[in-house]
Amino acid sequence: MNRQPSELSPSQTLHCDLDYAFPDPGEYLDAYCGICHQKMAVERNVLGPTSSVEAMAVRLGQSSGRLHDRFYCEDREEPWHRQALAIHLEASNTASKRLADLLLDEAKEIVQTRRATKENIEDFL
Question: pTM above 0.70?
Fold first, then answer.
């Protein structure tokens, strides 16, 4: 269903796992970052790729992508946000619950303080 944002109810909110999302146009009124939990910026009715496979098809001239809304966190390029994202991804990839809990505690601290916990974090991201 292709609805305009004015037709959406405020209860239609997307809570993302990461710091971006590409839902169908008008599917959500708002979205919140899965890393820092802030309201995300949005570009409506974007025509383009929404995955790496689709991006390759666009580059090869085999597709123009698809129409979508582009939600993204405006802080996603900040070092603290990038470190928190990397830690979230690492926590989701470990088989250890204890390690995941420790990692997520650090990510929470980073988001609360808006400061990376490791010096020269750019060297690792």
Answer: yes
